[in-house]
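User: Second chain of the day. Same drill as before.
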Amino acid sequence: MSALKDTLRETIALEGPITVERYMSLCLRHYYGTRDPLGSAGDFTTAPEISQMFGELIGLWMLEVWNGMGRPTGCRLIELGPGRGTLMADLLRATPLLPDFKAAATVHLVETSPSLRKKQQDALAASGFSLHWHDRIEDVPPGPTLLVANEFFDALPVRQFVGTERGWCERLVGLESERLIFGLRPEPETALGTPLKHGDILEWPGASIDVFSELARRLVRDVGAALILDYGYWGPAFGDTLQALKAHRPVDPLEAPGEADLTTHVDFHRLAQAAVVQGARTHGIAAQGDFLQALGIDARAAALKARATPAQAADIDQALARLTERGPTGMGDLFKVLAVTHEAIDAVPGLPALSPSS
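Assistant: Same format as last time:
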């Protein structure tokens, strides 16, 4: 039994059932603050951990966008949720292709976990870039911005509402004989209107919209571009996407609070709408496999294989297949890519422009 489960039981016993959003927030704060969740010894593996090709191609994307911005100095290269620092390390390895970039940019990592910050420091110590850590994107100094967020928004908490005969009632986490269970708030959320079907679940990503709105305001104010890669969909859609992973296997989201990774699928349409409201331009949405192939991942794999041993070449082929695999559970289709830019940036590599009304 986890210490957090005891705390949750005490909180619910004193205050009553809590929202799914609060439950996720408490669990994720404990989870990321107490461990390194990545890799074979952790709970999940992200694309940068699969192959250096992923980060290198994103580095090339950033260079091309920076070049198109007129190569501004004082550029803030930001990553949200940088994990072990693998993506940023691979990204920076591509930057010597435009030597002026190193003098023009500083690196800013938005990370709250002390243990992951230490791993990021170790991964990036030899990069030669000026490195800075922040708890929030709002803390990053103003300036021309290039930002990447890979598997960041899926880990932000959401509210859930269930369609009933009374209307949309919020899903709560409560107690039954000391066991955590899901329930519903009796009073409906009238602002959401009337559900078309009883039993439908509506997820509201308020935390993601807040972060995305702040990001878009920054890009509009300071000029720049952001690249978002995550698993999700182009809404609107209904369904329960809350899931938990422990040791790379699905578990009940209420089974081990704070000891398993909790995520939901990202509603890219809502994020794009939030950016447009702030005056930003959006580009995409593309499947990750299509995006990586548009950036040249096949050619990069061939170049790496040309100087690899047979065993290394087999690993490169396996990584390429995993990053671009098609089908409903393949990373190449399940993961999507969205870019947000200042309105003056009308094109970015690998992604079509979205119309404001999309």
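The first helix runs from residue 3 to 15.

User: Great, on to the next one.
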